[in-house]
């Protein structure tokens, strides 16, 4: 028994150190990742009530020294260093290039792009989105920007102004991971968005407690005028329960995992007529 605790303590310290080292290494590597073309996007379909693809969500991937690093790990690092602004602009550009290709194929499919709080707050944000839309001649309404509720917590004037400036160009806004951000009801009431994405955690537990949440969001959506997307749908049971609640849009492994660009384009060609 003797000496056990100090050993354990040492073990945890080692773990912390390893974590820190990894962070430092990845941070260093992220500096040149864009220039080395290590990023790419994958595209996950969102379907409507009849199961037809209505949009793709662009999801960032990073291959570093032959390994795929999860965005759950590298996005926060880029947020801390501020590098997310440049990387986020790259994502926007790539996603719009893909969107332009789909428009050329005559597909009325939307593109959803994740926007980090830091990127949204950047002073060049609205201009940047406008420029990309113009560069690729994209109909504004096909571009959906996914933001988290956290952007609505402060500087309401500035936030609403930016949102409505882009909405005037047709761009749609979705609130991502809805229900996980501790927003008060008054904040929710002031979000002028077009879609709410119910977080996967509620869909996962829909057979237990999640159903009440899903129903509540559906009820609010009618009075506050936004549409609802359920994310992280993995099973037929979940899909059925969501359909019974009248959820108009769904996304998740049950329908499709994120696809490489080529596969996403092929998926559209083989999909049944809308
Ligand atoms: P998110 O925006 O909530 O994206 C959904 C995540 O859940 C994706 O993980 C997706 O692959 C995964 N997912 C989709 N359906 C299912 C399902 O049925 N079951 C399960 N277990 N997972 C599912 P991914 O691609 O690893 O992205 C993780 C997070 O990283 C994203 O969460 C988003 O917050 C962030 N992220 C990814 N790409 C970008 C980006 O370009 N910009 C920014 N700012 N954040 C990004
Ligand atoms: Ca998202
Ligand atoms: Ca989400
Ligand atoms: Ca999430």
TrEMBL record:
Domain EAL: start-end pairs: 23-272
Organism, scientific name: Buttiauxella gaviniae
Portion of the parent chain present: 370 to 643 of 650
Identification of the protein by name: Bifunctional diguanylate cyclase/phosphodiesterase
